[in-house]
Design goal:
- 2 copies of one chain form a homodimer.
- Chain A has 9 helices and 19 strands.
- The first copy, chain A, is an alpha+beta fold.
- Chain A folds into 2 domains: 235 residues, no CATH class; 150 residues, Nucleoside Triphosphate Pyrophosphohydrolase, CATH 3.90.79.10.
- In chain A, strands 1, 2, 3, 4, 5, 6, 7, 8 and 9 form a 9-stranded mixed beta sheet that branches.
- In chain A, helix 3 runs antiparallel to helix 5 and helix 8 crosses helix 9.
- Chains A and B meet through helix 1, helix 6, helix 7, strand 17 and strand 18 of A and helix 1, helix 6, helix 7, strand 17 and strand 18 of B.
- Chains A, B: One of its GO terms (molecular function) is NADH pyrophosphatase activity.
- Chains A, B: It comes from Rhizodiscina lignyota.
Amino acid sequence: MTSNSEDKRLPQPELPEPAHPDLDSMLSRKFGKEVANYFSGSPLNRVSFLRQDHPFLSHALTHHTTTFLIFNKLEPLVESPTKLHYATYADVKPIIGDDPYSKSEEDLVKEYNSTTYIPQMIFLGLHEDKDGVTTKKGYKGAPFFAVDVTPKHESIKEAAEALIKSFEDKGVHFSKGRLHMALPAEEGELRHFLFQYGNSDSSAAAIYAEARHLLDWNARNPFCGGCGQPTFSVNAGFKRTCPPTDFSQLLASGTQGAGVPEKPFDRPSCPTRGVISNLQFPRTDPTVIMACVSHDGQRILLGRQRRWPAHWYSTLAGFLEPAESVEEAVRREVWEESGIKLGRVVVHSTQPWPYPANLMIGAIGQATPDGEVVDLGNDPELEDAKWFSLDEVREALRVGTSGLGERPGPEWREGGLRLPPRTAIANQLLTSVVNGFVSAGVMKI
Amino acid sequence: MTSNSEDKRLPQPELPEPAHPDLDSMLSRKFGKEVANYFSGSPLNRVSFLRQDHPFLSHALTHHTTTFLIFNKLEPLVESPTKLHYATYADVKPIIGDDPYSKSEEDLVKEYNSTTYIPQMIFLGLHEDKDGVTTKKGYKGAPFFAVDVTPKHESIKEAAEALIKSFEDKGVHFSKGRLHMALPAEEGELRHFLFQYGNSDSSAAAIYAEARHLLDWNARNPFCGGCGQPTFSVNAGFKRTCPPTDFSQLLASGTQGAGVPEKPFDRPSCPTRGVISNLQFPRTDPTVIMACVSHDGQRILLGRQRRWPAHWYSTLAGFLEPAESVEEAVRREVWEESGIKLGRVVVHSTQPWPYPANLMIGAIGQATPDGEVVDLGNDPELEDAKWFSLDEVREALRVGTSGLGERPGPEWREGGLRLPPRTAIANQLLTSVVNGFVSAGVMKI
């Protein structure tokens, strides 16, 4: 949220030319630059209202422009740490079958059999900067899907293992850990339009984040929290429903092994049926993360966890609790972890964080005059929390940033402050503070 | 987030004097006023790190300063639409027993019996402006709990019905619907300190919201989404765990009716055991709600749902989807529902919304120059969406606001625009816009 020219002190990625340079410049002058954090800035139009439209999904699934992201145990298929591998319909057909969308959603629910394994698929959206399908209403773009090929069920084991081997033979592999933090993003770039600057190569992180969040949510919630019975994926991966009936032969006493019965069995009642319940929809956990400045705006509070490398600090963070505003959650977390009392709190920018399902809400807060004494004794989560001068933080942003498992740059000297990389919203918050978010009055809103 | 003096055009509630008027004035001059929306501004310190401390909870439960909010089927016990009824330990003792915290959490999990009904209790926090308990570390305040007395199980039915009758005899009752929107709040007031201005009478809405959100979450999630087995409430109502064993005699074949077995039965494995899983913790759904201005800042986009009264409009709103930033969710929702394309989006303020579990993230967005044409044909959720002048909205904020089931004020004339009341964040967003959030450059950050 800062357009301060001092931003240029930090290394900037080469950005593609905006599609409408005049408009870009005009909006920048008027409103400043929006900080688009890593994992945001998706080039896809999700066309969420088409997720129940199975004729559309069938058409999109088999189109020659369609791209498939492949996951095995939530690990994405990559060509390198900076490049996702996009598979084709021919690749996934042996796993998903000819067309999982050939019947309507209503019919599939009626035919529900809890013992049938269906590989999870997600319709991610249309990449409108790429040639692709065109709908009656005029939505255009190349369809993107995600498919879980984990060989976890007998019915797909052979096909999935063959597919995985064929990928390995091609030299592509499933990425362990969080290497995908290296995926290119449109870092720091304002996206004025929904899909104005779409560029698949520079937005891989956002597409990956959507796929990972949804595959994880589906895998984590095979049962209904309201009644305990197995649930069924609908709405192209964006909803799980608790069907009223089940063709599973396991439920029919005396018919085990006798194949699928002619009629489904009624399942016990469930409070999520016939109503709109949040249990049916993907979960996203709001998380607050905040740069705290001293009352005079000249120092920044940072904390560190015991497991981090020596000299590494970051902003404080924590989950928002039920019935808190963001501003209250920021004050509570900071007081619990550091004893610092905050007055004014301003939301700076936000970041999707698909590990597994977080929304990072970045804020900047100012300590009250008598609230600056550090006390780690409330909720002892941190090994240390202390105040740093703006100059110390500015220098560390210049020479001391890196991923957690990496070394800082060549100019960093042993003993100097280390900070998270630019892909972390913590870094963006600190950058805004040292560049004048508070002292130049940007915070006065 | 606006300190614009034009705020005074709207009726302002009488606010209590701030505890530190000099500081208040100083911070206001420097940072402006924070919009504290209805349901926020809790006077309670949640002391979240004490939720597993059963000796503390036992002490708090039976203290003479302790207050209990009573709910029946999620309806709160009230004396009037503007006053919660606070019950005592003596009232709830027949339902909850002498001390549900007499054993450690670890022991209670070991003794778990899925057929035992335990009325849901929530420890809400300490009201630090009121005399109460004092902990070793020095936390002070009057404890607040919520208790669900719904007579839904044989084991408490008689006691619960007797308690409900005793309340009715006293003239207090369980509030239907959302009458509690009439509860007093510290509307529009900045809370500089965690608990600086605590005032139980003016913060009832925030205390109620915390209780309702947590009771609802517990009631809605009796089963584990990971394995389908019943779960058990721990952490004073803020966590549900999936115990590894169960003393339920229902699980022992041949022992039905034989009472509780000597040893518990092992339950099937569950992916949430031995790890930290979000399934164990309360869910809060991030929701975006936004005032959209035209590119020149002179008009405001409002929409209406079919079921609303004639002439009633509001800001657009919708759920944030997985792996979206708030800014992206705002642009997507506005485009889906109205066809309008937004450029710059700024977060304004946030509001807890306990129906059942929402966090309303209020934003202000600006249309792009060629993105101002309304199109209701993407996701046809709205009956209408159209542009209004700032003057129309300003006048409606003055004369046309009310709750959905109420009539607007005496100055409203038939056919005039109607808008939500000040307790709705929609109203606060519109108020900020007509008071210069965009045109006076407040948005330029």
